[in-house]
Amino acid sequence: QKEVEQNSGPLSVPEGAIASLNCTYSDRGSQSFFWYRQYSGKSPELIMSIYSNGDKEDGRFTAQLNKASQYVSLLIRDSQPSDSATYLCAVNPGSARQLTFGSGTQLTVLP
Amino acid sequence: EAGVVQSPRYKIIEKKQPVAFWCNPISGHNTLYWYLQNLGQGPELLIRYENEEAVDDSQLPKDRFSAERLKGVDSTLKIQPAELGDSAVYLCASSTRTGVNTGELFFGEGSRLTVL
Asked: Both ends of chain B: CA-CA distance in Å?
């Protein structure tokens, strides 16, 4: 079992819709959770971090964390074509261990 | 504020040749990471430095890969000899000391290696 799992996609949504990206992790003791966006040919860029159960909102982005289910998600409201990218889920398992990335979900927002 | 700077951006070499990548982190960032990213995959950690000390190099293939971070600032990653399977993007990232625990990494543009 991979430590961090994401659906590779591709996920396609129409412009203006809500895009929902999901991630599960295996280490129940994981401390912190991150979403990175990576445009094609570019490097990853941090867009959201979440540390406690519940929702965290930042503009059009909402991160959701459920530690009991070992599940973290990213919602993008009013999706724009400029949101088309690969979204990487990253989990910090704590105890000074390394940050672990999922393989990413490719999102395409259709105009 | 300048970001993480990497060079070269692209490198094409023949197998068995050596190659080196250079990284200059964001000023004041004590922690430096080298990641490898294959197409369609997430970044995988090769080595992490705290200042000049390599604190996690368990995933670095030490038979052919080496890295150094002299004076705790910029860093070099070397592969000698390169193999076909080393073709990938090599990403450098940096963070502040608190970033180690938060996962808030700042990545450079990467060095894309093609081994023929």
From this structure: 37
